[in-house]
């Protein structure tokens, strides 16, 4: 049987899962591919620590060049992460004509144009199913299953840490800091969870799939990104009373003339929307296309084995291509390289949405009329107003739901309302999915 050799750069959590799958499922993978997938080398700076997989002697080395310069190794797995050494090693692998499999969404979002060009120049491919949604086949669905359709929009929960935290706040009424601590102890949050909770991890994934869905180059810096650190149990309680759950959503929409919306922010999702019922560390995404309407994918978005399974799926795809000398059969970016277009990301100020606004207003006569007057000044129509007991002896919470309004107008109104009493806390704004 023909052998196809692979090498792995980085031997952390996901890398360990990949190795386990390749070793434990070696026979069935070979039967499906028609060739033996040989994990020839793994390079990592730490070759002493015990991993949850048994390797044959000589496989684990501490020099990446042993893999990159080996002519027998046809596929390189980049499992290092980050945007520095990972990029350098990936570029070298591609220059040497080796195909690359990666789960590195930050690298693809920030440097994808350079990497895809290097792959084309080296007659190689980059496979990255595991970069978005863990084991959910988001990339394959967009790039292959919907190849004959036109994607109109995507909405998804793409970060398990944030979803776990929001689920904990919703179910237990605990504060954000307590929920984050529980997420860390349970292994759902990294030691440094900043990229997760500030929305950047989700935005990296959104940049990758938006480029695929719409055939455009997406500048990561153009995305609107807002995290979940300011979400409180009070806002989640109000959301539930109105028929919503709060989720960190990634939203991309094609609005015509190479203009797209691409944004990440907390969103109130109606109870009857399937995404509102995706809880814990799970991920989900709904893709809306012209012919198929809505497709929702749901599953584990991270973890050693789910992400490892997506990586192995990419390895098998590349191995099959190698066997049939079919490199480039499926374009890396779904569209042919020469047909990738520049896109304009619509500024957030142009967004039109429904809004939830919570004011902590001074307990004075006429204050509600003043707030309503400012909102009216900026063409913001109020659907409902709720006022409950005092938060303190001096302030009362006032919650408003608006009809469709323009983001720029809402921001201007809130800035003016904040000047009514500068001692009052800043208003809370959450967009509502309609």
What is the topological layout?
Elements: E1 3-9, H1 13-24, H2 26-33, E2 36-43, E3 60-61, H3 64-68, E4 73-78, H4 85-95, E5 99-102, H5 105-121, E6 126-127, H6 138-145, E7 151-157, H7 160-172, H8 176-185, H9 194-197, H10 200-214, E8 216-217, E9 224-225, H11 233-242, E10 244-256, E11 259-270, E12 282-289, E13 293-300, H12 304-323, E14 341-342, E15 344-345, E16 352-362, H13 367-377, E17 382-387, E18 395-402, E19 405-406, H14 407-418, E20 428-432
CATH homology superfamily name of the largest domain: NAD(P)-binding Rossmann-like Domain
Gross geometry: elongated
Count of discrete alpha- or pi-helical segments spanning 4 or more residues: 14
Q: What gyration radius follows from the Cα positions, in whole Å? A: 24 Å
What count of domains describes the coordinates? 3
Low-confidence stretches: none
CATH architecture of the largest domain: 3-Layer(aba) Sandwich
Strand content: 25-35%
Structural category is: alpha/beta
Give the CA-CA distance, first to last residue.
55 Å
User: Averaged pLDDT, please?
Assistant: 94
CATH class of the largest domain: Alpha Beta
CATH topology of the largest domain: Rossmann fold
